[in-house]
From TrEMBL, chain A:
It comes from the Bacteria. This is Nucleotidyltransferase family protein.
From TrEMBL, chain B:
This is PqqD family protein. It comes from Nocardioides marinquilinus.
């Protein structure tokens, strides 16, 4: 027996087991989401995830983060770049593990109060076997909702959304589909999920909970032509004038850790980093006109 | 199996993954400890602990499958079980303990 260099295929499932056990050890409710949960529930095919995604009771996020820090999983700040949707997760990483851990204290698209949403998801939780060990996870209907919201928020995830919709259409019972409408109504996600509900033939139900997260915030990313430029322009406007030179430098010369997060990798060679920086600057230059137009449109809203 | 040849089993408080080359075991009661990498004979023994099994049966099975010298196999398996027990990932079942399923 010796110290291992874990691969992603080993680290991700073991990471799920580790985080869910750490949460239980400190009395925090947490649910495995995405990744191997989706595969186990037949919501996607075999696919190597690059990180561990866990939805945490908002009241328990800080105790769980402290426990992970104690275990050597440091907050790595890889998502410390501007975003249109407010911060909804913390990423922790460990020098000897190949994957990061994303602790989500709310999930974009569930627009009801995050604590109430978590209660809804927790009450209907199931157990999924990951790394030969049972972990608490979203049930199949909630898992599909989480996945659909994730795909709807991304600009290059239409194929994943189509695949998910096809699986739901062909394998779910009418009762499960109706349950999806109930879940959406109970979590304030009916409007964000509407394209998915339409795709799988689910008739939306009236919401049962107040929406506390602005729908406009959810709609922005899908409306914009340049999703990565606009947050930087918004961030620049909100930055005090004396910090703007540093902000602009950071925007142009993004940190290596940011590139690793963007490329879902733990290591980049100097040449790869150089190429990624150059490609990003080229994209920014090409998208500048559209980005400024999007930014001006947003400011008029 | 006899009291001189107790059955061994994996402890339940672990998560583990495997591929063709190795097994990696995470001790859930010791999350600050590094996962254990098992390869070679150690991985073969781990895979055969799906249900409780004694040392004699393990040795016979492995010596047959790998055409190995039983004495050498016994030494390797015994060493693994000793190390794995110390690491907290396997345990011998106590025939005198009614809580143990093979007692």
């Amino acid at each position: 027996m010796s110290a291992p260099a874990l691969t992603l295929a080993e680290g991700v499932p073991l990471g799920y087991a580790l985080v869910l056990r750490a949460a239980a050890d400190v009395g925090v409710r947490a649910l495995a989401i995405k990744g191997p949960v989706l595969t186990a529930q037949g919501l996607r095919g075999e696919h190597q995830s690059v990180d561990v995604d866990v939805l945490v009771d908002p009241a328990g996020v800080e105790p769980l983060r402290a426990e992970l820090e104690r275990l050597g999983w440091a907050h790595d700040g890889t998502y410390a770049t501007p975003g249109i949707v407010p911060t909804h997760s913390f990423t922790h990483s460990h020098p000897r593990w190949p994957c990061g851990v994303d602790l989500h204290h709310w999930f974009p698209g569930f627009l009801a109060d995050p604590a109430e949403v978590f209660d809804v998801l927790w009450d209907r939780r199931t157990t999924v076997e990951v790394a030969h060990h049972g972990v608490p996870a979203t049930d199949v209907v909630a898992g599909a909702a989480v996945a659909a919201l994730h795909y709807l928020r991304g600009v290059h995830r239409a194929a994943s959304l189509d695949d998910l919709a096809e699986r739901v259409r062909t394998s779910w019972t009418p009762s499960q589909r109706d349950d999806l409408a109930v879940l959406a109504a109970n979590t304030g996600s009916t409007e964000p999920l509407r394209p998915f509900l339409d795709a799988v033939g689910v008739v939306p139900r009236p919401p049962t909970r107040a929406v506390v997260k602005p729908l406009a915030q959810w709609e922005l990313p899908s409306e914009l032509g340049t999703t990565s430029l606009v947050p930087w322009l918004m961030g620049l406007r909100e930055t005090p004038w004396w910090r703007r030179p540093a902000f602009v430098w950071r925007a142009l010369w993004l940190r290596e850790s940011n590139f690793k997060a963007l490329h879902s990798t733990r290591s980049l060679s100097r040449a790869e980093l150089r190429r990624a920086r150059r490609a990003r600057l080229v994209r920014a230059a090409r998208g500048l006109r559209q980005g400024v137009a999007d930014y001006r449109r947003l400011r008029r809203r | 199996m006899s009291s001189a040849d107790p059955a061994w089993e994996r402890v339940h408080d672990v998560a583990w993954v495997e591929d063709d080359a190795r097994v990696v075991v995470l001790r859930l009661a010791r999350l600050d400890a590094e996962p254990l990498l098992l390869d070679g004979p150690a991985a073969e023994v781990w895979r055969r602990l799906e249900a409780p099994v004694g040392l004699d049966a393990l040795v016979a099975d492995l010596a047959h499958d790998f055409d190995g010298d039983p004495a050498v196999v016994r030494a390797d398996v015994a060493a693994f079980l000793r190390d794995a027990e110390a690491a907290g990932v396997v345990r011998p079942l106590d025939p005198a303990d009614p809580a143990d399923p093979v007692a």
